[in-house]
Amino acid sequence: MTGYAGALRVNEAKEYSFSAGASYAHPVNEHLGLSLSYLNEGHPTDHHRDGVAGQVWVRTGPNQPGWSFAAGAGQYYYFDTTELHSDGNTKYTNDHGWAAIYSVQATYHYADSRWYNQVQVNRISPTGKDSTTSLMLGVGYQFNGVKGDKLHLEGPATDEAITLMAGQGINNSLSSETTTIAALEYRRAVGRYVDWTVTAINEGNTPQSKRNGVATQLWLIRSLNQKVELGMGAGPYFNVKVPDAEGQRSHKAGLVSIGGRYHLAKRVVAQASWNRVVTDYHRDADLLLIGLGYSF
What we know:
Layout: E1 2-10, E2 15-29, E3 32-40, E4 47-59, E5 66-83, E6 92-109, E7 115-126, E8 132-141, E9 160-171, E10 178-191, E11 194-202, E12 212-223, E13 228-241, E14 252-263, E15 268-278, E16 285-295
Antiparallel strand pairs: 1-2, 1-8, 2-3, 3-4, 4-5, 5-6, 6-7, 7-8, 9-10, 9-16, 10-11, 11-12, 12-13, 13-14, 14-15, 15-16
C-alpha cells in the first residue's frame, strides 16, 4: 500500500499543478503484479480531474532490501469537472471517460523493515482530451505474510454488519458546494475477498445536492492485520429524488468507493469511506462518510 504526492504537467497546455494518490499493489508471481489506484490530477485551469486506475506491472524481482524497478500499463476511469465559459445557466460539466495510463517506478526497500520509498512517473492519455505527466514521491508499507482474506469469515459471529454513517457531501462543481449527509449501510461477506453492500444515502438539502436513494455495490476487500481491512467498491445508485439540474435524464447513477474498516471489538466496527457519485446530468459529488457499525 502506497501514498503519493507530487507535481503534474498538462502536456498540451504546458501548465503545472499538484498530483496525489494512493495505490494497492498485489504480486501475481516474481515478475508480475496488479494494482488498483486512486489518482488526483490537481486543479489546472478549467479542469478538476481525478479517477481510479487498474494496471498490470512487470517487475525486476521480489521485494528485497535495495532498489527494484517496475513498469505498468492499464486503464484509468476519470471524472473531470470542466469550465464551459458559457453565458447560459450551465457553467460547468462533469465529463467521464476512459484513458490509457502508463507508469514506471523505482522502489527502495529498507533492510529489516516493511516500509519503503518510491518514485513513480505516470502518463495519462485520454482520447481528445489533455494528456498529463506526473512525477510523484511515495511512502509505502508491505503486508508480507498477512493472509489477507476476510477477517470476519474466520469467526461466524461477524459475517454481517449494519453501519450508521454521517459526513460531508461536496458537489463536483467549480465552487465545490458542501452539505451534511447521512447513510445507513448493510454489509455481508459473499466471498473470502468480496463484500456486498446495500446503502441508503441522503445527500442533504441544498439545490446542488438535493438527492437521496439506495446504492448496491460489490467490494474487493484486503485485510491488513487482525483489526484493519481496506476495500474498493462499485455499483449502481438508484435515486428516489434528484437535484435540480438542467437536462437531467435519469434517476440512475453510479457509486465508486474506497473505504477502510477497523474492528474495535468482536461486534463493533468503525468505518470511513470516500464515495464518488457518477451521474449523466452533471451533478457528480464526493461523499465523505464515517460511522460505527454492529456485526452479527
